[in-house]
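ok new one. same drill as before - structure tokens go in, u give me an amino acid for every spot. 377 of them this time. try not to just spam alanines like last time pls lmao
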């Protein structure tokens, strides 16, 4: 099978969407499929044998790490040369609009997937009034597809409630070979805690951006004076957050990848995640695979992953004391924390990338079965 993948973000950028896509491409290529990736130009020409067709782009003003790549006629030429069986558009926006247009023009079956809950992001950038307009644009784009995939049951319901049709669930996935509990180390714990390894260590991994609501961790940290907080990642809110957390035991670690990131998860006492805008929350699964207990907001796709009191703790986002109570409960009960670690790993082991990609492949085959005569002009 030949798949043309249009995505608004890809390597070398680091985020949950890119993680899912690179593992998906890897497993598709391993299984004999051929993928052509259309993405903003990041200087890379291939990934795991799949060609990357980089499109020149400009930074998005509100979030310079995101690049806007505008479609151009050369995309059509490249598609005609590649002759894909289908086009998969990820988070259709700017470049994805080109994928939708050429799928229709060239009579290629189209699948779209929804990974970023953009309507919820708007209020964090003082643009909440535009939410109804954005939903209409999303509906217009996604309803061009023969199938729309989401990564959590909450998002399946959300899209259906807003008039998006033909929606189904794409199984979650996590690299259980990379993220493992045995990677915990004294060296990493010293690094994250700034040489205070005996203090309770709280961890956040992800973008440092407004929609992640990282500032809401500060009351938790203040309520547990001996605790340390390590923020792993980077983003447009880094300097704002540095000022916000000034005077607390907070360490801005920057990006970690690979085994270093896996070791960070395994070495922490709790992974704390206040975001209410997650379609899934891949970092939660990575933390759980590494045996790191989770304290997270009961919102979006998170309850699909975290079962309160079994493999982590959920708190109600509207409760100002919720995260504090849940974190204290986790840190105060050593025996219970070990049970949560064990159960978190067991949950993650259900969701390897191989199974998630096989799930996606079944959707591809289902769409192709409805379009036996489709071909590139």
């Amino acid at each position: 099978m030949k798949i043309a993948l249009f995505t608004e973000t890809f390597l070398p950028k680091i985020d949950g969407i890119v993680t899912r896509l690179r593992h998906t491409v890897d497993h598709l290529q391993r299984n004999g499929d051929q993928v052509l990736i259309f993405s903003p130009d990041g200087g890379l020409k291939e990934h795991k044998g799949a060609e990357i067709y980089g499109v020149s782009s400009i930074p998005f003003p509100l979030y310079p790490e995101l690049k806007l790549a505008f479609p151009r006629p050369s995309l059509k030429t490249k598609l005609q040369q590649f002759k894909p069986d289908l086009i998969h558009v990820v988070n259709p926006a700017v470049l994805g609009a080109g994928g939708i247009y050429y799928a229709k023009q060239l009579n290629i079956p189209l699948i779209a997937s929804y990974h970023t809950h953009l309507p919820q992001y708007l209020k964090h950038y003082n643009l909440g009034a535009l939410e109804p307009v954005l939903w209409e644009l999303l509906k217009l784009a996604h309803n061009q597809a023969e199938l729309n995939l989401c990564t959590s049951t909450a998002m399946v319901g959300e899209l259906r409630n807003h008039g998006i049709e033909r929606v189904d669930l794409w199984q979650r996935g996590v690299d259980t070979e990379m993220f493992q509990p045995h990677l915990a180390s004294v060296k990493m714990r010293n690094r994250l805690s700034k040489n205070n390894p005996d203090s309770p260590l709280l961890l956040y991994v992800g973008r440092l951006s407004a929609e992640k609501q990282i500032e809401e961790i500060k009351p938790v940290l203040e309520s547990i004076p001996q605790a340390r907080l390590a923020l792993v990642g980077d983003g447009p809110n880094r300097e704002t957050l540095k000022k916000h957390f000034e005077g607390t035991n907070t360490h801005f670690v920057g990006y970690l990848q690979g085994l270093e990131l896996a070791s960070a998860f395994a070495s922490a006492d709790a992974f704390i995640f206040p975001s209410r805008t997650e379609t899934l929350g891949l970092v939660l699964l990575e933390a759980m695979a590494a045996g790191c207990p989770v304290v997270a907001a009961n919102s979006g796709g998170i309850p699909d992953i975290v079962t309160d009191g079994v493999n982590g703790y959920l708190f109600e986002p509207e409760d100002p004391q919720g995260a504090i109570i849940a974190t204290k409960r986790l840190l105060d009960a050593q025996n219970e924390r070990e049970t949560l670690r064990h159960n978190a790993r067991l949950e993650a082991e259900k969701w390897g990338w191989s199974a998630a990609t096989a799930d996606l492949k079944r959707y591809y085959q289902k769409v192709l079965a409805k379009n036996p005569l489709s071909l590139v002009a």
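The chain has two domains: 2-173+352-369, 181-348. and btw The chain is about 40% helix and 20% strand.
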